[in-house]
Amino acid sequence: MVKLIKSKGIAHHSYFIEVSGRAVVVDPRRDVDVYLHLAESSEMDITHIFETHRNEDYVIGSLELACATGAEIFHGKNLDFAYGTPVSDRDKFQWGSIELEVMDTPGHTTESISLVLRDLSVSKDAQMVFTGDVIFAGETGRVDLYGPDKSQKMAGLLYDSIFNGILPLGDQVILCPAHGAGSVCGADIREQDYTTIGYERNTNPQLQCTSKEEFIKMKVAEELYTPPYFKKMEFYNQNGAPIAGRIPYFKPIPPKILKEKINNGACILDVRKPTSFAGAHIPGSLNIWRDGVPAFAGWFLNYDDPIIVVDDQIQGLDEVRQALFRLGFDNIYGYLEGGFPSWYLHAGQINSIKLWSVHQLKQKLESLKEKGEGLTENRKKFKETSEEDFFLLDVRKIDDRRKDYIQGSHHIYVGDLPQRIQEVPHDIPVVVYCDSGYKSTTACSYLKKNGYTKLSTVLGSMTAWKKASYPVVKA
């Protein structure tokens, strides 16, 4: 029996395989209690842990799980791991009638492997294949992790792994990838937990390429974002992350103590929704809404400063703590006791950010147009602009920007702001929009934290703009 364990936010898939009275885990997450509970409830011993590759987007839980169970860790031989046992192409593991065969499938990374499962009591044909980040539902793995000069080579390896390795296993084989929709490890993964080789052969756009050259060209042309925390994950997942034993204790921090922590360099992570944060927040805090923490914490947080979480309510913060732990943020310090209300009830200083509706944005743009001015297109000429001018910043993904945008806006993806903040002017107001108003408020919070004062976030952003039938520029 195979059980899928899904981890929200990072869209991670791991697998718990019951084989002849024992258990095998593929690509475990760092908080390993879920596997331990499954093993205990089934009265099974976890004996084998397989890593399909060195993961980039989360801390692998192999060492945590091995420490708790004594299981042996296995991974591809084409990378010098500091732990575990390397395996080679065609190595086989058998428990009763169940066989797992290792298949070298480089392309996403050089050491990527897939695991082919067979039930020999039924047939020697493959039944399932655990593909890691080589192929997903509707997508194939990214090939840019070693830099642009290596992308063409990696794309060629990926083609060979898929077309000469995985697809020949047969259309009936169930594909079990390491990620689902929303993962940064693929450009456009489908919302689908399981798929089959046959279904992907017929529906996956990237498998419709008629030649290896066409596939390589398509993969090299992909533009995917690489969060800075990937480097930390790569280091941890090759050399071994610290074994925590459990998710760090989340201690309540009274407002008085929080003020001291702020003065000593603590990072205040406000996980409230845009309207709440914009209305009032602790000065210097960073806003990443609760569900956005897994996707965006790695762009803005560091691994040194203590992280203290702020919310309106203190219930449900376990999800935030869990997400940070999976990304390797062991510097989680605690949360504001009593939530944000306790801050202002103790006379704590507050800041705010202006909230614009799309109608206000439209009126401002129309006003400038009527005066024959329009938004400033060239940032070098800001000093020549009128008092009503402002810098309209689009922080959506580049793929969305290329579909359409609001006339006169400038584009910087929200995650790229720390590296490109010098492109945002200080001397005129900055108005930020995204898809719906969440990422724009994150962007505003980061800009405000870095000294910008004239900021507005557009509620509803591009979604509301289109609902109002306001004009867009088709790219």
UniProtKB/TrEMBL annotation:
Asked whether the UniProt record includes Nucleotide-binding among its keywords, one would answer no
Task: Give a GO molecular function annotation for the protein.
Answer: sulfur dioxygenase activity
Q: Which residues form a coiled coil?
A: 358-385
Where in the numbering of this chain does the Rhodanese domain appear?
A: 262-352, 386-474
**In the UniProt record, does the keyword Ribosomal protein occur?**
no
Protein name as it appears in the record: Rhodanese-like protein
The record, for InterPro entries, names:
Metallo-B-lactamas (IPR001279), Mito_Persulfide_Diox (IPR051682), POD-like_MBL-fold (IPR044528), Rhodanese-like_dom (IPR001763), Rhodanese-like_dom_sf (IPR036873), RibonucZ/Hydroxyglut_hydro (IPR036866)
The UniProt keywords, alphabetically, are:
Coiled coil, Metal-binding
Give the organism the record lists. Answer: Methanobacterium formicicum (strain DSM 3637 / PP1)
Q: Which CDD domains match?
A: POD-like_MBL-fold, RHOD
| One GO biological process term | hydrogen sulfide metabolic process
